[in-house]
Design goal:
This protein has 17 helices and two strands. It is mainly alpha-helical. The protein has a two-stranded antiparallel ribbon.
């Protein structure tokens, strides 16, 4: 990997991110106004410009530092009631983003704390969209920790948020994630119904979504549908949908390309197409080195374990040996 002054490229870029956030322009004393709120609001879109390519492992420290600076301003500056509400909403947006980066980096305890901060800010600002977003992220975290029933209950709380129902972008994502949750518990009917609701919500979208929802493209919806079908044991359909998602995925979503390449390989393994699965696994490893995401590393580790069962197949054996030689194996 190329290095800048002895530092790996992704860490070098991440350090530079802080300089682009404009934190020095946030007052530490005095009175805060609408322009300060707008300055704080601009931090999250800046962070997400890097997230899709670098992964949360490269950004969670920068996001947490930004959050602490904003919290300090709220605690030491003065402001009116209207600005106070807007400040808490902006701070919650930043805390939820920092939580996502920590989640992606495999720092689940940090993620939980940040999500709780975001949820509190959402209550104080009466920002229902923010609250629904945090509930959705907490549901994802519960699912990662194999607490599927809990994930569904949390996801349902997000779906039922009044303000969320008015945002078709958010509702499309929430229903997709609920579809995966229902599929993981074996409820085919509810999984299919959630996928239909997601499609209908996405058809109502217009304009541009919030920065944190910028990943929600037709490719993402197709990939999540693939994940739901895979959990239902419909491996052929899962393989087809995931392959379509990869074809539609824009180049800027490098982390998601690794994620869905792994998902594609897993569907191929379960469909007994081991040679093609090994080829997809090699491609995932090749891309993963450019992304700092512990979540992706864990999925790659699971994929290698599954391919170990097919070590008698030359293509799988070659991939496993190549992984050992290149040090890609965890």
């Amino acid at each position: 990997m190329r290095e800048q002054h002895g530092m790996p490229r992704r860490e070098f870029i991440a350090v530079g991110v802080i300089a682009t956030l404009g934190l020095d322009q946030i007052p530490s004393i005095g009175r805060l106004g609408i322009s300060d709120v707008e300055r704080i609001r601009a931090i999250v879109p800046t962070l997400y410009k890097y997230d899709h390519a670098l992964g949360g492992g490269a950004l969670h420290h920068a996001a947490t530092e930004a959050l602490r600076r904003v919290q300090s301003a709220l605690n030491h500056c003065t402001y009116g009631d209207r600005v106070e509400r807007l400040l808490y909403s902006a701070m919650g947006d930043l805390a939820a983003s920092a939580g996502w980066f920590a989640y992606d980096a495999g720092r689940q305890q940090d993620a939980t704390g940040l999500y709780n901060e975001a949820l509190q800010a959402g209550v104080l600002s009466r920002d229902g969209i923010l609250q629904a977003r945090v509930w959705s992220n907490l549901a994802m975290q519960a699912r990662l920790l194999n607490r599927d029933r809990e994930a569904l209950s949390i996801g349902r709380a997000a779906v039922e948020t009044r303000q969320a129902k008015s945002d078709p972008w958010l509702m499309a994502l929430l229903h997709c994630r609920q579809a995966v949750g229902h599929a993981r518990t074996g409820d085919r009917t509810r999984a299919q119904n959630s996928l239909v609701r997601a499609e209908k919500a996405y058809e109502r979208t217009h304009g541009r979504p919030a920065a944190w929802l910028s990943f929600l493209t037709p490719a993402e919806l197709t990939g999540l549908a693939g994940a739901a079908h895979h959990s239902l044991g419909q491996h052929r359909r899962a393989e087809q949908l995931t392959a379509s998602a990869l074809q539609m995925l824009e180049p800027r979503f490098e982390r998601n390309r690794v994620y869905y390449t792994i998902q594609h390989a897993q569907a191929l393994i379960d469909g007994e197409d081991i040679e093609y699965a090994a080829a997809q696994a090699r491609q995932a490893v090749a891309i993963a080195g450019r992304v700092k995401s512990e979540r992706i590393r864990d999925k790659l580790g699971d994929l290698r374990q599954h391919l170990q069962r097919y070590a008698h197949v030359p293509a799988a054996a070659d991939f496993l040996e190549q992984s050992r030689q290149t040090g890609a194996q965890r």
